[in-house]
Amino acid sequence: MFLRRLRLYGPLALYGVFLLLPFYWMLLTTFKPDAELLKSPNPFLIFHVTIEHITGLLTQTQYLQWFGNTLFVSAASTVVSVFISYITAYAIIRLRFPGSEVVSTAIFLAYIVPPAILFIPLATIIIQLHWFDKLWALVPIYATFLVPFCTWLLIGFLKNIPRELEEAARVDGASNFAIIWRIIFPIAVPGLISASIFSFTLSWNEYLYALVYMSSSTNKTVSVGMITELIRGDRFQWGELMAGALIGILPAILVYFFFVEYYVAGVSGSVKE
Amino acid sequence: MSHPDRRRFLQMSAAGIGAATMAGGFPALASAADSPFKPEKGAALQLLRWKGFVKRDDEVWAENTAKFEKATGIKVTIDALSWPDVTPKAALAAQVGSGPDIIMGWNDDPFVYPDKLVDMTDLAEHVGKAHGGYFDTAHTYCFDPEVKRWVSQPIGVTGNALVYRKSWAKEAGFAEFPKDFDGMLKLARGLKKNGHPCGFSLGHAVGDANGWTHWVLWGFGGKQANPDNSIAINSAETTHALEYAKQLYETMIAGVAGWLDPNNNQAFLAGQLGLTMNGISIWASSKEKPEIYADVANVVPPYGPSKQHTIFNNFTSAFIFKYSKYPQAAKEYLRFMLDTPQADPWVTGMVGYVTPALKGYADLPVWTSNPNITPYRDAMAGAKFDGFNGKPGKAAAQALDEFVIVDMFADVCVNNMAVKDSIAKAEKRLATIYKR
Predict the structure, then answer these.
(1) DSSP reduced 3-state for A196
(2) pLDDT at B31
(3) Does the pLDDT at position B3 exceed 50?
(4) pLDDT exceeds 90 at position A221
(5) CATH number of the domain within which B174 lies
């Protein structure tokens, strides 16, 4: 019995430690005074808890502004991208228009082109549209990598929804629009949520586009703002950086916490026939 | 009480302005009148610069900019980024033909797109003449010999020096810091023996790893390229440099292979290191730890067998893209910011983080206000440039960006690769880069 438990929980515990150690370290660094960060009898413990890094972050930088910016951009780009991806994926899977296979492959290829290659041609377009240094412009910009990803994810999900459901609705006189929203949408919710979680996380962590297309301090996102303000040459303000990262992961944690079941259903398939 | 008449008012005003000017009250206006640069009507400027290495840098720069705005009526918007992020943003501006009017970039940046930059000859010569001329490295990084014009306005370097613990060096038998490479190796061995090893980054630390490896390579007379950009890394001098580095590595603290720029600062301030190479930040930060602060010393790195200064520092300069609608205003801004009334408090406020490229500012009292600041004053005087002794430009920038020299040292020290094999590998990488 003991051996059986050890075989089951031993590797799980090791994996748990491996996964959670970075978060634990982040927590420690946030609440440790600077002196303890440099030298401590046991680096895995805190001997004098302090909140000076959190208060410093919130009062001496524009962190709350960056946080608000990131929240707005991530939420808006997620909603826009998942909506576009849903109708695109449905069209590719169900409408079977000429060239749908090619479009599907092209969408996948668009996803694998790295942003480092795309950012210069994209910048030309953004400047011509006068979108440079406009926070809302990050929403359509992020959609350029979120839509291919979400479409690809939703194609896989929608493929598993039985066609008979749609055919039955069609027999009852439902239009395409009604099928998309009243029949498929409720079943696709787990897939849409997992696509939303991925989109939100990718947008939240995005760095390159936010760095190059935004310039004023009021338009910075968390990832760019923290690097700009909390790293001065070779002096890293570790306490504030980790406090910023800790606060910064809260939205993602909340999203995962509330939607984890949908998320699991989304990535493991949809309706069981 | 009688009211002053118009003549009396003018007399009083003239006397007041004269007194204020003599007292230094209106230096900005006085020097602006002598300026050869006449800002365009309705000009507004955008500056992209690196975030200051100390807070005082940003503060004084902003104060000086406010003075400029008041004196000229030209609005200046400052965007500051983490220093490694300026180069990609400058490259983007060059590609799309839009962006900040002035960019304070790094090292070879101006040579990556020289045809897209405003001719800076008038400004560079004017400023150089007014402030004692430039150190040689500034000329190399900012003057394009092919078109015979300045493409960028030199600003300065983030200087490197050796940082060590005086009491531990003394314990190891060195009351004074050694004057040559052999002496330094003996010191490093002594420190290691007493449990206070040295530490030099062999990871991809932009400032620290590039700093010490180039210093050793050049110290032995090795070089990356010849003046015609043919590859020159495969030489007896490079071999000697790598053999020396291997011996030095044996005295280092464990883990340097993964070190980035902040790691040696942290290890030194935690009391784990006896010797390293760094900017002035370690000494400046040690003020918060009095027992270390009193024991830290900064020194100019010793000479190698080449018998000359061979320091490598990151160099910063300001350039103006041709797309700017206000090049004259931009030049006037740079002239103003590098003029003594503004540059003096700026350099002084940075306490040695940035060493100006202008020789005139080597005399500022800040450099001798503490013996630990003085070595950073001399960082420009002996500095060489990346890609030495080749031409600055895309190839040199890419070789630096890809850490070719650092990796060559790491291959020998950390990966136990034979010296000749690591040189051959670096030579191959450089040949590919320089052919592109």
Answers:
(1) helix
(2) 56
(3) no
(4) yes
(5) 3.40.190.10
Is residue B20 assigned to a domain?
no
Task: Return the residue of B nearest to A132 by Cα.
Answer: B99
| Average pLDDT score over chain A | 89
Instruction: Write down the pLDDT at residue B16.
Output: 41
Same domain, B302 and B321: no
Residue A269: per-residue pLDDT? 54
Task: Assess whether B65 and B76 both reside in one domain.
Answer: yes
Same domain, B97 and B206: no
Q: Write down the pLDDT at residue B214.
A: 97
**Residues B98 and B189 placed together within one structural domain of the fold:** no
Q: Does a structural domain hold residue B1?
A: no
The torsion angles phi and psi of B105, rounded to 5 degrees, stand at: -105, -165
Check whether B361 has a pLDDT greater than 80: yes
Residue A86, phi then psi, degrees to nearest 5: -60, -50
Q: Is B136 within the bounds of a domain?
A: yes
**Among A35, A212, A227, whose Cβ lies nearest the Cβ of B92?**
A212
- For residue A134, pLDDT over 50 is answered with yes
AA identity, residue A202: L
Q: For residues A231 and B94, is the Cβ–Cβ distance under 8 A? A: no
Q: Is pLDDT of A265 > 80?
A: no
* Domain assignment of residue B201, given as a range: 161-312+402-435
d(CA A33, CA A49): 7
Could you tell me the CA-to-CA distances from A172 to A92, A164, A169, A175 in Å, in that order?
24, 12, 5, 9
Give the model's confidence band at A257: pLDDT under 50 very low, under 70 low, under 90 confident, else very high: confident
Claim to verify: residue B219 and residue B244 sit in the same structural domain: yes
Judging contacts by C-beta atoms under 8 Å, the chain B residues touching residue A211 are 81, 85, 88-89
Say how many domains are in chain B: 2
- What domains are defined for chain A? 1-50 (no CATH), 51-268 (1.10.3720.10)
Encoding tokens for residue A48? 């004098």
Per-residue pLDDT of B21-69, as tens digits, reads 444 333 444 456 678 999 999 999 999 999 998 889 999 999 999 999 9
H or E element at residue B139: helix B136-142
- Asked if residue B280 and residue B415 are part of one domain, the reply reads yes
Q: Choose, out of B78, B204, B266, the residue to mutate when testing the contact with A (most A CBs < 10 Å).
A: B266
Residue of A nearest to B89 (CA): A212
ipTM: 0.77
Residue with tokens 């490295």: B137
Angle at B148 between CA B146 and CA B151, to 5 degrees: 95
Please give the residue of chain A at the shortest CA–CA distance from B284. Answer: A235
In angstroms and rounded to an integer, the radius of gyration of the C-alpha atoms of chain B is 24
Pick among B50, B78, B81 to test the A interface (most A CBs inside 10 A): B81
B249 and B215: one domain?
yes
pLDDT of residue A246: 93
Chain centroid to CA B113: how far?
A: 21
- How much is the average pLDDT of A43-63? 94
For residues B185 and B249, is the Cβ–Cβ distance under 8 A? Answer: no
Q: Would you state the pLDDT for residue B28?
A: 43
Instruction: State whether B192 and B338 are in the same domain.
Output: no
Asked if B55's CB is within 8 angstroms of A232's CB, the reply is yes
**What integer is the mean pLDDT of B120-129?**
97
Which tokens sit at B317?
């300069």
Of B51, B95, B281, the CB nearest to A234: B281
pLDDT score recorded for residue A234: 86
Residue B358 lies in a domain: yes
- Supply the pLDDT for residue B26: 39
In 3D space, the residue among A86, A270, A79 whose CA is nearest the CA of residue A190 turns out to be A270
